[in-house]
Specification:
The protein is of the alpha+beta class. The chain contains 14 helices and 22 strands. Keywords: ATP-binding, Ligase, Manganese, Metal-binding, Nucleotide-binding, Purine biosynthesis.
Length: 423
């Protein structure tokens, strides 16, 4: 069968890498793809928001399954369009992808169906938002309501910072339409983990645990990014926490979405804050996390294609997932200046040397081909991902790969996986 993966980042390179290993698959396409996916699949120059172009291509090529990576085409209704035309697509339909596309919707859903989360308010005007800030106290979390590529969250440490963030979003258009409405939440203490599961709208099959590193600098300092690295398994997700997350977060959310007439099919990603035995939900994403996808897929022993097909067909009955006992760590290598304005077009050296390291894959995220070489073209450029018998071994192998790769101003965190070691 032929499979089309939609997207161009590290998550999509990891999906292509995993899908290409399936004996069921004869050819993989990636639209638009990147230089990494080009080594495993045929890249197709169609943008992720060109829904009709993607549909026409899938029909013409006889694609049996389309796997949608990023949130934008999901929120635009790509899966709905494919299904209306009798084609199988893996991902949330438009009316379910709103769980990520609107943070206000997501918070209201959690409140209604008793999914544990932080106290919050939703605002479109500066004055009532400032009153809520004064009432709740500092630190406080301010989120743009809409899609902001993982960057629409500000953790304000002072009142001035909080007021400036709200004013920037509501009056200053800092995140465009995504910030025309803001969600303001109490600040939760604890340790974050990513909890992902496949669901057909009723059955829920959890993936292995993972932990992302959002802040740009070591020690979780600096502004939030789309993710500077991830590892799996995450020791903070104990068996008791896992059971709690399944019962109180995933089960209630999947059932709640169904009750709202928004049956959720695809992969559901809950960002959790864990504090002792308490689990609270920070947010939901309607797709695989990036960079969590990279270590998770390296640890997945099962063929992913029958799982994706089962979800797209609407029934996960009888599906089980096997995992390698090994740990996996992904270190994101970013461009100078990210997550603010960053440089592009720097030539990347050392990719071949890193690629020769056993049990290590360099996933491309923000790269493009230039002549014989590869140059930087995004904020998060590469996700260097390694397996190891222990988390420590996986960390060492990943950083061994990182040290082989160079370009001017490259930035990466040096403490990815440290939390697992500390436990």
């Amino acid at each position: 069968m032929k499979v089309l993966v939609v997207g161009s980042g590290g998550r999509e390179h990891a999906l292509v890498w995993k899908i290409a290993q399936s004996p069921l698959v004869s050819q993989v396409f990636c639209a638009p793809g990147n230089p990494g996916t080009a080594t495993l699949a045929q890249n197709v120059d169609i943008a992720v928001d060109n829904l009709q172009g993607l549909l026409d291509f899938a029909k013409k090529e006889g694609v049996a399954l389309t796997v949608v990576g990023p949130e934008l085409p999901l929120s635009m209704g790509l899966v709905d369009l494919f299904e209306e035309n009798g084609l199988k697509a893996f991902g949330a339909r438009k009316n379910a992808a709103i769980i990520e596309a609107s943070k206000a919707f997501s918070k209201d859903l959690m409140h209604k169906y008793n999914v544990p989360t932080a106290a919050y308010g939703v605002f479109t005007e500066v004055e009532p938002a400032v009153s809520f800030i004064d009432q709740t106290g500092i630190p406080i979390v301010i989120k743009a309501d809409g899609l902001a590529a993982g960057k629409g969250v500000i953790i304000a440490q002072t009142r001035d910072e909080a007021v400036a963030a709200v004013t920037d979003m509501l009056s200053g258009n800092a995140f465009g339409a995504a910030g025309s409405r803001v969600v303001i939440e109490e600040f939760l203490k604890g340790e974050e983990a990513s909890f992902l599961a496949f669901t057909d709208g009723e059955r829920i099959i959890p993936l292995a645990s993972a932990q992302d590193h959002k802040a740009v600098f070591d020690g979780d300092q600096g502004p939030n990014t789309g993710g500077m690295g991830a590892y799996s398994p995450a020791p903070v997700v104990t068996p008791a926490i896992h059971d709690k997350a399944m019962a109180e977060v995933m089960r209630r959310t999947v059932d709640g979405m169904k009750a709202e007439g928004r049956t959720y099919r695809g992969v559901l990603y809950a960002g959790l804050m864990i504090d002792g035995g308490s689990v609270k939900t920070l947010e939901f994403n309607a797709r695989f996390g990036d960079p969590e996808c990279q270590p998770l897929l390296m640890r997945m022993k099962s063929d992913i294609v029958p799982i994706l097909m089962a979800v797209a067909s609407g029934s996960l009955e009888g599906v089980e997932i096997e995992w390698h006992d090994k740990a996996a760590v992904c270190v994101v290598m970013a461009a100078e200046g990210y997550p603010a304005d960053y440089r592009k077009g720097d030539v990347i050296g050392g990719l071949d040397a890193a690629g020769k390291i056993e049990d290590l894959v360099v996933f491309h995220a923000g790269t493009k081909a230039a002549g014989e070489g590869v140059v930087t073209s995004g904020g998060r450029v590469l996700g260097v991902t390694a397996l190891g018998g222990t988390v420590k071994e996986a960390i060492e192998r990943a950083y061994k790969g990182v040290k082989e790769i160079t370009w001017p101003g490259v930035h990466y965190r040096k403490d990815i996986g440290a939390k697992a070691m500390n436990r």
